[in-house]
Structure formats: structure tokens, C-alpha cells
Amino acid sequence: MAEYLYLIPILPLAGFIINGLLLGRLPKPVVTLVGCGSVALSLALSLTLFFELKALPADARMIEQVLFTWIASGNFHVSMGLLLDPLSAVMILVVSGVGFLIHVYSVGYMHKDPGYGRFFTYLNLFTFSMLTLVLADNFLLMFVGWEGVGLCSYLLIGFWYHKKSAADAGKKAFIVNRIGDFGFLLGMFLIFWQVGSLNFVDINAIAPSVFIAGGGLITLTCLLLFVGATGKSAQIPLFVWLPDAMEGPTPVSALIHAATMVTAGVYMIARSNVLYMMSPDALFVVAVIGAMTALFAATIGLAQNDIKRVLAYSTVSQLGYMFLACGVAAFTAGIFHLMTHAFFKALLFLGSGSVIHAMSDEQDMRKMGGLKKYIPVTYWTFLIGTLAIAGIPGLSGFFSKDEILWKSYSSGFGHPVFWVIGFATAGLTAFYMFRLVYLTFHGRERMDDQTKSHLHESPKSMTVPLMVLALLSIVGGWIGMPHILGATNHFEHWLEPVMAQGKGMIDTHALMSAGGNAGLEWGLMIASVGLVLIAIFIARMFYNRKPELATAWQTRLSGLHNLLLNKYYVDEIYGAVIVRPTVYFSLFLWKVVDVVLIDGLINGLAVIYSDLSEFVRRGQSGRVRTYATLFAVGVVVLIAVFMRG
Amino acid sequence: MESQILTLVTFFPLLGAALLLLVPKERHDSIKSISLIISFITLLLSFWLYAMFEPLANGMQFEVNIPWIASLGISYHLGIDGISLLLIVLTTVLNLLAILASFNSITEGVKGYYISMLLLATGMLGVFCSLDLFMFYVFWEVMLIPMYFIIGLWGGVRRIYAAIKFVLFTMFGSLLMLVAILYILFEYHSFAGEYTFDMIRLAQMPLGHQAQLWLFGAFALAFAIKVPLWPFHTWLPDAHVEAPTAGSVILAGVLLKMGTYGFIRICMPMFPEATVTFVPYISVLSLIAIVYGALVAMVQKDVKSLVAFSSVSHMGFVMLGLFALNLQGMEGAVLQMINHGVSTGALFLIVGMIYERRHTRLIEQFGGLAKVMPVFSVVFLIVTLSSIGLPLTNGFVGEFLILLGTFKANVWYAVIAASGVILSACYMLWMYQRIFYGKVTNKENEGLLDLSIREKIVVLPLLLLVFWIGIYPKPLLDRIEPAVKQVINQMGRSGTVKFDEDFSIEPVLADRAAEHELIVNVESEGK
Predict the structure, then answer these.
(1) What is the separation, in whole angstroms, between the first and last Cα of chain A?
(2) Nearest C-alpha in B relative to A20
């Protein structure tokens, strides 16, 4: 079956082409069948190939398929080629699996929207791009997927383009991502001119002998790639687009802005682990940015009132965790959290979509409350997702987050400060998530009567994906249990072949140098679980038992609350420092440099020239006497000149 | 016939123009159909040319060399390489589409208009085919006249100002070029004892450094005005805003390439040392053009002047790639010449379509058109994405190769140029948003009709090119590569300019040989 690898991305592309070219001409069921069916086939093929890969011996788990030469110029050569290895296998399962569930969910969620066909067209294009991104065997084809998912994100955020806020958000996402792409591009150039190839297999083979480990060039390369990752994965300083991206329909937020696209940066770094392992400095930067983002976004999440915005900041924060993991060279832990996060965050977003659906498109949690009894399936599945993200033992999020926390402390690249930040973030996460649950599902019903009369549980097409994702949110972590629980970490073993070479790079830094003993691991684990429980308890106090307490604290800390509510004014600062000056400068260039200086100079020359001609023309007066005088003067002058010479 | 195919392609439109002279001027339909048929046959001839062209062969193909004015060494000398070939096909494609797009918009002076269009085609094709400097100059000047009329007679409100500005700028440059041509002629006479205008022979003449600098300067000014390179660009926005749709399409699609074509065909092979000396100056001007053009485009109110300034930016990329003086940069630049013709040509065509409906191009007059004209909005989006160089569209391949080559030549140039990638997204998407997104606020936009069949036929070929070049650029790059290698070889012929084994002049990386070995090793390991 391996020869059909290319069909995994091509199938959704075919769905895109069929639905796109026949937009508005196909009956709705056919659109649904093409849209969901193409992704289902992709999923089936991904599963088949996953098991085929698994059947191979560990060190032979790599299938490359080169379709044709894409760009060739001199010694530059890039193919349309795909690479299936344990890492990309995990990714295609997440993308096509979660993607398929979200396609099904969209059938119910979007059924009344006049843009139903357009929605599925975009969704299929997205799936194609994302699968290309993760299956590419070289950086440039990865970049194709990278830009493709960016385009789909732009189109889907702006799906309801009649709203200015939606169109603005789409554009913002695209432009901020382009800033990241600027770094990605330069990183690729550096790699190519050093290594002579953009193919991952080649790079892994050649890079160690070309770059000096720990040198400036490899650090620069890794940091440039990381700039790309901060754009796509919404890290400081380029995270500003993701919260605004919530203007898109909720399935989009679940698929693109939680489960798949935004994790592309993490995937890219894990894919380039050999390069990163050569640059401890770059790893340190990745870890610092990841940790800072995790904490920073979690604090903003505390104060938001829009249900989707809380989840958006939560996503930014969780992505920070993944980068923290990569930064301490625990790439496997990063990818593990990427996967579990895909399950529970997709679940949470889809659950919030179900809430919004029930609430007649209301997203403000201050107008919700007590929804538990109206939409029980949504409630229970949402609660599972919340427990998973909060890190309650036994659920998927617990295992992946715990592994990151432990590695951020114990890894050779780790530091206790990283652990403290991760630990604090875990507490904040539990708090804002339970705040969300209490405000939405418990307590007083704060909606108006009309909304209340319309409250209803969502259709099967929406609740079944919720249930499947809830199940995955529970069991998804069991494949990566820590050793101290006496289990085998299957996930780590599975990714071992991809990470082995990178690990081999740094035998000088023992990976587990910081004295990782089982007792400490137990201690840290218990501490973080304890913190989470306390956070949940406080959230319950504030938002369920004694709401007046929350209001009181809010007024007491109104300065801080406003700062958080306004997201530290980052958007305003960017606007004042970057956006507006650029516009004014551009106006200056146009109105002053172009019109006044350059054109003025040229028109000035023209004026001088025409004045000069006017002067000469005056000589042609037609009066013989003047001519005769001038003639005489001329003769005299000439004679004088000749006599002197 | 095969040996005369270049003559046929070049002068076929002229034949059509002569034919149109015989048609009574009221018979609009006959005039239109004759021009359409003539340009369609020219297109087919250029396809035939493409089919017969040997991609891997070195040197000029389909060469014709007949002495014309022997005492001055002027001959009728035509011939093409991969660069000219692609530009010829681009010209015939855009010419046909421009004529098709004019059917409804040109209602007065129809006969004169189509005669001008066909004359213009012959002028452009002649420039790309000429291997004789005299003929090159004649064709170069011939283009000017019909373009002057197209802007000045069928243009907008300020058409006279724009037309005169266009002609004065261009004339200024071409006069200096004429002086330089005459200088070379006499210089060759004192070198070889005879006169010749043959470009290939002239390129073999050794020229002193000082002379090269002056001659390069004179030619470069003529070409830079055409490109247009900052700060010689101010004629372009005026010309574009005032020109009728077809005029803008040809102007942006083909005429601007005359400048960059001149650099690679004349300046580089004939004055290699001067070329190397001028690299930093031209690169810096190109970088200014890239950033400046993009920033100014961002604040334009008229769609056409926005696209005009974006052309300044894109052509800056082409110039930068050419003067990277390595295979990737120069191949990317040539490919980007084609790409810019396709994308910007398409942009002007579709802007013309909306202008025909609303008689305005002010961005603020629109909004919410995605609802009213869904097909049009998709077409516009695809062209927009191609213009900002999204992967799998044509713009990406060219831009990427240019940046890759530039990075090797000078890292900082590449860093600055890559910022253009961000800026282009800003101005294009902002324009797209203001035209297509939001609610329909202007009553006049409510009843707009979506694209007609004729309009769909006009844009379809360009959309296909956008994806074809984006997904499978190999056939084009295969034809460009030998031609670019040829230019680099010619530059090296004098012995004063050195290039390394992958054809890049002035290598940056000290130890290329070691690196080369490394790549070879890996390749063998891979197998």
C-alpha cells in the first residue's frame, strides 16, 4: 500500500476540486459525501499505512515517495516528495482523524449556513495542505503546506466576510504569519547554501559535518526557523492573531486553531531536531519563549468573558508548553502533548460550539449559566475535556503535561525555573477552565427568555464526534505513561528512530544530567496535582459558591483585571509602534518623495527647459535690425577670438 | 518556412495592421474579428515556435542573418534563446487577451486602436527577436508610437499628461542609448576595421573599463526607466491609471520586461566588468524599489495605481535577481519576468472588468463584492495570491529562486528583499478586503453582473498559467537555464570576470569545492 502514500493528501485535494468547481451546483448531501468522504478515505489509508509502518523493524520505519521534480535550477533541486516515518505517521493520524470528526461535526453545525458548500471546500483544501505539511520530505514542500494552511486559515477566519471584524481577523492572521514566514524563508536559504539540500534525510546526514555544533551559524539557522514557528504557532511576540481568529466558525477554531495548524511550528522543530540538538543556545531561546508564552497567555485567559477567547488563550498557553518541551530537547514530550492537546482542545472547542449553537450564537459567558441540564451530552463531554486539560491523573492531558513538567526540570537543557513556570501555568489553566465550566454550565441562568426557550442539545452529527473525542481525551494518554508508574512509554519508543540521531549529537550533555531520580519525579507530580486541585477549589468558590467573592476581588484588583481583560494592550502597542507609523511613512513616501521630490525635480527640469526655449524664441522677433545687430556683434566676437588664438 | 518562422511571428501582426487599413472604419465587427484572428494566428505561430525550440541546445536558434545595409554593417539578424522564446509566447498570449478584452471598452476610433495594438505587437516581438543592435533600436522606438497613441487617445481624463510623460521619460533614455550604440559602432570599427551592429560580435570586442562604465551607464539608464527602477518610476503610475485596460496589460505585462531583457541581453554580455562594478548600486536601487513600491502601493486609493506601484516592487525583485549574477537568481528573475506578465496582466484585465461595470477604480467605492460577484471574487483572489507569491502559484517559484540566489550573493540584500514578502501580503489583502469583503454599502454595486462568458475566456488561460508554472515550472526552467548559462559564459569570455562551477560570479562561500564534494558524497550515499 505504500505506493499509495500520495493519495493521503490528494484525496482531500480531489474533494476540494470537486466541491469547488461545482460550487452551488451540487445537492447538499453530495457536498457532504464528497467533503467528509474524502477525509474518511484519507484516514483509512493513514491507518493502513500506520500499521504497515509498525510491522517494519524499528530502524527501517521510513517510506519515501518522490513524485516529480518541482523546482530545479543549477545545483538547487527540490522534489514533490513525501516521507512517512513514525513522526509523520502520528501527525497524519491526528490530522485526518481529528479532521474527520470535525468534518462530521460541521455537517450539523453549518447545516443552516448559506455557505455550506464553500465551507467544506475550504475545509478540504485545509486538510490537503496540512497533510502536505506533515508528509513533505523537504523544507520547501513543507513550506507549501505551511502557506496553504495559512491561506485556508485566512479564508475560514474570514468565512463570514460580511462582518468587518472577521475579515480583519483573517487578514491579520495572514500577515502575522507572513512575518514568521520571513524567518522560515531565510532559514531555508541558510540551510540550502550550507548543506546543499532541503531534503530532511539529506540534511540530517550532512548538517552535522557542515555546521559546527554550538556555533553561531547553526544557532542562527534554528532561530530563523523558530521565527517561522512563532508565527504559525502563535508564540510571543507573534501570538496576536490567534485570539482574533476566533471570528471564524467554531469547527474551524477546533480544527485549525487548536488541533492541527497551530501545532505546525512544534512539528517543524521536532522534524528538525537534529539541527536543534546542535545548538543549545537556540534550544534555550525556544524554551524561554515557550515558557513565557505559556504563562503569559494563561494569565490573559483568566479574565476573558468570551467562551471561545478563553479557549484561544488556553491554546496559545498549551502551545507554549509544547515549545517548552522542545526547548528542553524533549521533542517526544512536545509531540505527545501535541497529540493529546489535539484531542481535548478539539473537544473543548467543539463543545463550546455546541454551547454557542444552543445559545443562539451567544458567546459571552456572563449571559450563560446553568446549561448543564439543557445540554447534558455537551456538558459531560466538555467536563471530560476540562479534566484532561487541567491535568487530572488518569486522563490524557495529565500524562503529557506531567512529562513536559518533569523534563523541563530534569533534562540536561532544563532548569528549575522552567518547572516553576510550567507548574504555575498548570494551576492557572485549571483555574480558568473551571471558571469557564462554572460560568457556563452551573449557577444562575443568566440568558434572556427567548434564548432560554430555544435551548436544545445538538444533533447526533455534533454529539457523536464529541463523545469520540471525549473517549480519546481519556485514553489518548495511556500510550505514553511515565516509567515510574511501572509502565512502558510506547509513544517514546515509537518516535525513537526519529529522535535517535539528534540524541546522538550531544553525548557530552547527558540528557538526564540533573539527577532525575524517581522520588523527585513522584514529588513534583504530586505537587502539580495538588496545585491543580487547589485551583479547581478556588474556581468553585469564586464562580459557583460565592460569585460575590469574584466580583469583590475583581474590583479590588481592578487595575490588574483591566490589564488582563485588555490582553496587556499588546494589540494597541503594536498598532501604535508598528502599524500606524508604517502607514504614515508610506503616505510620506507617496505624497512627498514621489510627488514633490522626484516628480517635482523632473517637472522642474521641464519648466527650466521650456523657459529656456521661451527665451530663445524671443530672439526670433522677425525684426531685421535686431538680427543685423546680433550678427555684427557675433562677427566682432568671432574676429576677437580668432585674433587671440 | 521553418527558417523564416521568426520573421513570420514578428511581422504577422504588422500584416494584420496593413489589412485593417483596407477595412472601412465603420465596420467595427470586421475590424475586431480580423484583429482577433490575426493575433490568434500569431499565438499559434509562437506555440509552434515553442514546440520546435530545442530546450537543451546552446546558442541562438532559428537564426536568420541577411546583410541589409552592408556599408554600415547592419543586417537583418534574428534569433532567439530560451529567454526570448518565453517572452515571445508571453507577448502573443497577452496581446490576444488584451485585444479580446477591448471589445466592449473601446467604442471610438476602433480602427486606429486595433491598428495600434497590432503595430505594438510587432514592435515588441521584434525587440525580443533582434540580434542586431540597429534593429533592436528600431523596434524599441517603434513600440513607443502606438503606445503613445493608445494612452493619449483612448486613455482616461489626464491621458495627454500621462502619454507625454511616458514618451519623454522613454525618449530621454533611448537617446542616450543611441549615443552609446554609435560609440560602440565606431569603437568596433577601430578594433576590427569594419562596421557591425551584430550583438554577438560586438560582445566579443574587448572594451576598456572606463568605456564599459560609460556605455553600461547609458544603456542602463534607458533600460532602468523602462523597468522602471526607482527613482525613474514616476511615469508608470500615471501611464497605468490613464491607459485603457489593454494598454495597461501590455505595458505592465510586456513593455516593462523590455528593460530587464535589455540588461540581460545587452548590458551583461557586452559590458561584463561594468556589470560587476554596478552590482551594488543597482541592487540597492532594486531594494529601494521593492520596499518603497510596496509601501506606497499600500496607501493608494486607485486600484490601478496600487497595481502600478506593486509592479515597481515586483520588478525590483527581477532586477535584484538578475544582479545576483548566479544561476538561481538570474533564472528566477527571468521566470519572474514571465510571472509578472501573467499575474499583473491578469490583475489589469480584471480591474478593467470592474471598471467597465462601475466606471470607477477607487477602492472606497467598492465593498462586499464577494456576495454580488462570486466568480469574479474567486478569480481576483487567485490572481492576488499569485501576485503575493503563494506556493503552488507562479509567483512563488520565481520569487523563491530570486531570493535564494540573492542570499548567496549578499545575505543582507536577501533579508531586506524578503521583507517585501510581508509587505506584498499587506497591500494586496487589504485591497482585496476593501473591495470584496464587508457589506455592500454602495447602492450602485448591488446589481453588478458576474463575469460573462467572454470575460471568463479572457482570464482562464492566465489562471491556468498561474497554476501550471506554480506546480510544474520545469519546462520553463529547462529553457531558461541554458540561456542564462550562455549569458554567464559570455560575461566570462573577457577573462576579467570569473565564475565558479555552478555559474555564480564572485562566489561568497570560500570553500565551494569542499562543499561540492560533500553534496556528491551524499548523493552517492542516497543511492
Answers:
(1) 98
(2) B378
DSSP code string of B39-50: HHHHHHHHHHHH
Q: What is the DSSP letter of A509?
A: S
- Cell 557675433 belongs to A634
Nearest alpha carbon to residue B504 among B265, B319, B321, B336: B321
Smallest Cα distance from A587 to chain B, Å: 6
Dump pLDDT digits (tens) for B123-140. Answer: 999 999 999 999 999 999
Q: Residue A480's closest CA among A335, A319, A287?
A: A335
- Closest CB from A164, A185, A589 relative to B296: A589
Rounded average pLDDT over A408-419? 89
Place of cell 509544547: A322
What is d(CA A245, CA A153) in angstroms, rounded to the nearest whole number? 8
- The predicted-structure confidence for A304-318, as pLDDT tens digits, reads as follows 899 999 999 999 999
> Quick check: B436 and B377 in contact, CB under 8 A?
yes
List the helix and strand counts (H, then E) for chain B: 22, 2
C-alpha to C-alpha distance for A94 and A43, rounded to whole angstroms: 9
Choose the closest CB to B422 out of A154, A179, A190. Answer: A179
| Residue A321, CA distances (Å) to A95, A417, A528, B464 in order | 20, 14, 15, 44
On whether any CB of chain A is under 8 Å from the CB of B158, the answer is no
Kindly determine whether residue B168 and residue A606, on different chains, have CB atoms separated by under 8 Å.
Answer: yes
Centre a 10 Å sphere on the Cβ of residue B282 and count the other Cβ atoms it contains: 20
Check: CB of residue B265 under 8 Å from CB of residue B83: yes
Using a CB-CB distance cutoff of 8 angstroms, which residues of chain A are in contact with residue B414? 186, 189
Check: CB of residue A129 under 8 Å from CB of residue A92: no
Residues of chain A with C-beta less than 8 angstroms from the C-beta of B396: 147
CB contact under 8 A, B522 and A594: no
Partner A contacted by B482 (CB < 8 A): no
ipTM of the complex: 0.89
Q: Work out the angle between the directed axes of helices A264-271 and A331-358 (0-180°, nearest 10).
A: 170
